Amino acid sequence: MTKMWTKTIATSALALLTAGGVASALPMTVDAASKPVKITFWHAMSGPYQKALQKQINEFNKSQSKYKVVGTAQGDYKTLNQKIMAGAKSKTLPTMAQTTYTQVPDYEKNGIVQDVDSQIKSKQGLSKEELNNIYPGFLEQSKYQGHYYSMPFSSSLRVMAYNKDILDKYNLSVPKTWDDVKKMGETLKPHKIAAVGYDQSFDAEWQAMTKAAGKQVITPSGKVNVASKQSKKAMNDLMSMVKDGTAKTAGADIYGTTSFVNGKTAVYMLSSAGITATKKAAPDNLHWGTAVMPEYQGKQRSMLAGNNLVLTSQADKKQSDGAFAFMKFLISDKQTEQWAEDTGYIPVTKKAVKSEDYKNYLDKNPLAKAATDSLPGAFADTSFVGYQEYRTDMLESIDSMLTKDTKPDNALNKLDKQTTKIIKDNK
């Protein structure tokens, strides 16, 4: 009985298959299984940068069939941050997002992001050789409390632009040290030209000089050195140049580009990402170049900036793996080199910088060379919960020195206490 019943069922099933009853459902099952996992990606790129990013998204999507990245511009970084915070509350976060690395600790505290440690350690992750190929400063940016919470993407650092016409006219050389800059100022001051132009704030220069002197303003362990003797000396050296007229701040212009391209300053400290804007602003008859930041107390340091890519907490396992696959694609030698050529940002890997293609690019675009020459001395600012509050206090501190004649030592003592409290309150 049992054998006959089983045979009947088998025969009926075969009939259904032959008739197409089950067969008609099979293509639907196959299609569902082969459909790529959608990876939603929020970013803050616009104009030519958005175009360059979309090109890389398209290349990734064509390179494999398992995932499909869909990028969406969300305005500037402030707007993007607002949308990420709103998305976290409404549970509508994308799979991954672009953000400044200093924002990551606050995102982690609020449960907005998840680390990518497991993806890095997986078979499809990053080998020790691949990690070593990434410049240390970029890996430093990507870590928080010993875990990788982001991957590097659009990176820049501080470089020095110099006006060749002014240097030639007054028989001056490109300054190698901050002492050289100060001496240059003494030569140029009678001619109403400032030796150096700062942006509205010169915190990046202050932190780089403090780092060169052997202290980090805030260490990764949370130790605050804002009021250290090294920090105070660096700030006093910067401010003394402003006070004696050998340095000029941007003021309401925010950036020192205008003064530089109009011949009001001989050198200008700027982000490597700002070279493109400076080229557009410069008159055709201006001859200028770029160099690494001046040494301070025998060492050259340059602070990194830019943004990273994060994986949000609302991404499931398949989405997380797909997002990381895209992150890994972007930091591959070929892609990071192409991104640098298309946008002016810096390649994040050593092999990309040393590649023949990038060397050829630098030969044609010599203004970009100073950024890659600065990578050995590059370092990341320390990020922590409450960083944005600290940065607001820091900018107000520098402004008080410039507009209220607050003594640097007093301003830094106050900032040291404010920063210590921020870190303590957020533990």
UniProtKB/TrEMBL annotation:
Q: Does the keyword ATP-binding apply?
A: no
- GO CC annotations, alphabetized: cell envelope
**UniProt entry keywords in alphabetical sequence:** Signal, Sugar transport, Transport
- Family classification: Belongs to the bacterial solute-binding protein 1 family.
InterPro entries documented for this protein:
Bact_solute-bd_prot1, SBP
> What Pfam families has UniProt attached to this entry?
SBP_bac_8
Organism expressing this protein natively: Weissella bombi
Q: What is this protein called?
A: Multiple sugar transport system substrate-binding protein
Principal place where this protein is found?
other
Kindly list the places in or outside the cell where this protein is found, as annotated in its UniProt entry: Cell envelope
Q: Where is the signal peptide?
A: 1-25
Keyword Phosphoprotein listed? The answer is no
Provide the coiled-coil residue spans.
none
